[in-house]
Prior knowledge:
heterodimer, A: mainly alpha, B: alpha/beta, 2 domains, five-stranded parallel beta sheet, about 20% strand
Amino acid sequence: MPIINFIIYLLTMIGIYSLLAMSLNFQVGFTGLINFGQVAFFCIGAYTSSLLVVNAGVPVVVAFLVAMALSGIFGYIMSIPTKSLKSDYWAIATLASGEIVRLVALNEAWLTAGPFGVMGIPQILKDLIPKDAYPVFYLLFVIACIIMVYIFLSMLTNSPFGRNLKAIRDEEELCLSLGKDTQKLKLQAMIVAGTVGGLAGSLFAFYIQFISPENFKPIETFLMWAMIIVGGRGNFKGAIIGAVVIQLFNVSTRFLGNYVPLGSDSMAALRMTIIGVLIILFLLFRPEGLIKEKKKVYD
Amino acid sequence: MRKYALMLAITIMCLIMGFGVASAADTFKIGGLVPITGTQAVMAEDLSTGLKLAEEEVNAAGGVLGMPVQVIIEDTETRPAPGMDAARKLIDVDKVKVLTGGFSSGVSLPIAKLCQSKGILFVVGPPTSPLFADVGDFVFMMDVLDKFKGKEIVDFAVGDSGKKKFGLMFMNNAFGMALREETINNLKAQGAEVTTDVVYELNKVDYKAELQRLFAKKPEVIIGTWYAKEGMVTAKQAYEMGFLEVNKVPWYCPEMVSSYATAVKEIPDALEGVKGLTPLPPGLLYTEKFKKKMGRDPITAYAAMNYDAVIMIAMAANFANSTDPAKIRDALWKIDDFYRGQSTGGDKRFVGGGVQGFGKYERTIIKGGKIVPY
């Protein structure tokens, strides 16, 4: 049934964006690091895994692991010059980092094929999965990744490490006064977030099978931010719910033409407006998002 | 509990919208991909009109196998991810078996790959990247490849100016880089020198630095291409900086219409005397129908490619006596000899890889705020 295929596609994309939103929420919601360059992890993950497989013939599993590692390392590198900055300056620096990565992908054509993009990215386990079942298989693969990441991040945030991150977010000076190395903790948080972002990029590349720098523009970061504003900061359920809501709103405007007497051009222009209005409404009336962070009270 | 109810309601609402799309089995549906929003939106109305005019004409002539044709237009937002959303929606929800349109090669290439993998026919409208030719047998093109345009513009610029030192300015995307490469290769083949080779980023509000670099080594001729917004900014700033003096250093543009769609109206004096290539203008039939429907002249010749695509798809389906995309694909190779098109000179015969082999471009010049034959 073709409509099922569309829903499977939509769920798969929601899943990939859920990972990105969880990664961003780990930085923003748990550590208080304002990252406007989140798309950089997505880009590095996508390019690293696909180039390793397409150009170097590296096995997909290894390519995924290298992509995640490189994205994590980039999270570390990105933080080194900015680790001592306050949140607003940190945000500007990350915005620049995101654009730098995209521009490298765009201009270093010897490595990335530049604006032509990387074609010929194979489907994972294509020979083993029947063609009709492949979309379901990939969706399940993405869901499995989400579950693993969810468990991993939840364990981290409930550990002493996670409590330190929350302490940085809530009162960095207090954290410092207790002798915590907040700069080191921020670097570690960025490595974790980068790794998850790299996984999302790899999943995206091997699903769409074609990537180009146009896929990694700053608007992608804007969408990820919209997801955590709507879903709720400081919890991973919120990130997933936010991804669901934003993606559904984004796509559903394509169907409104059947019910609202507006032309397809007007409906298309309304798409981003609707998301913008949604963000404003949430900021005004439900700033904690759909799912509020559960804060533990320690006696 | 209330928040979960809200989330559930939102989800159900959105899914109902998806399921609510009526499926009319007695209609031949064609998906039309148009950049209604984004950097290339300035041409969206024309591109949509091209599709709709063909739809009306085919239906007036009896449709496809007795069924009316319906062109369902979706917005690509001039970005790959929404472009893919649009294509997936057309294929999986609207159940179209044939797609056409597109504008940016970077947006349309992954869609072409998707169509090939699903056995959906994609008759690409304006995009010109040579990479389409390698995607597969379900992908056809209505415009000529970049390498054709690269040779044409170099032949024009070298022959017309009689000069040998060239400054180049192309945008950093799939379209611009392919055209730049072909332009450089052809200039070298003609013994010309490239003094400066400026590659610019899209969506900037200031191109003064690029223009300074372009003229730093005193080129004798400029070859460059833009989209409407960048063309407007670059032309305005070049004029203010004294670089747009075509009597001293002539400018040649491989894409006159898309480069100067806005600028030719807003700052006609600045562009006076700029020369370049324009796809041969739409045929009389198309122009008249367009004027009648829209009450104005078409601003771009690319919309006629969408028009030709829909007409050829309908012809091929009738010829094949089938709406099966594989049969329409095979029939396209047979009917292309008989169809006199409205774009790129009318000869719409395909050659290897489903690309256009005989399209023609017209040499044009900007005079009195209009792009006219040179």
